[in-house]
Amino acid sequence: MTDLQHLAHANSFGAVAAEYDRARPSYPPALFEEIERLAGRPLAGADVLDVGAGTGIATRLLHGRGARVIAVEPSQGMADQLRAVSPQIPVVRGVGDELPCHDASADLVTYAQAFHWTDPERSVPEAIRVLRPGGALVLFWNLKDRSVGWLGEQERRHAAALSSYHYYGTLNAVTEPLERHPLRVTHTKLRWERTIGIEDVITDLRSKSYFAVAEPELRERVLAEEREWLTGLFPDGRVVEPYTVDLTVALTPA
Q1: CB within 8 Å of 100: residues ≥ 6 apart
Q2: Over pLDDT 90: what percentage of the chain?
């Protein structure tokens, strides 16, 4: 993907913020238990910057576990949706490459489904700057389990139909820059699944950047074909989506 394509994808989410909030997957409770274990501290009472917070799907879960969360989000549309759904959570406009935060002001800096939109050569030093000693940079992604037959076929279908299709099936290249800093880095994976309706699957797809940037006629044709294909696979209308949560926790020196 070129820099211009990357920017177009990154800027596409504001227009699909409602679909994003309505249909994107949540995260299992075990994820936050694992974050607490690897970070060596409870989320309750922690000062957390949730960067690239989007519509606040992970932000609300962090808040619900007692963290004092500030959401950092560059997209006006996504930030507006977050404020509408969760007015109790403060939101500031900003990006991970240049955080609008004081030095040593956070216990955790989290990125849920967002770190791959940053330039790690800038975002990692920025996270280190705003973290307190012994703080943690926490990166996590929900990844559909493409080893499951129908999900692997779905990926092939979308890659063939949409020239801008991309899927972050492996995140080694995204997280590798962490190793060049004085951080203690741990990677782990968790598995979970959700059951949703076919129309929820379609709404989720609408919120993907590679659908959002597609020409409207192409997008609607591919989504109509997807609806028909899923209906044949799941005649009862219930779709089981298995996920792997890819989690990286990088601790700063105490």
Answers
A1: 72, 92, 93, 94
A2: 88
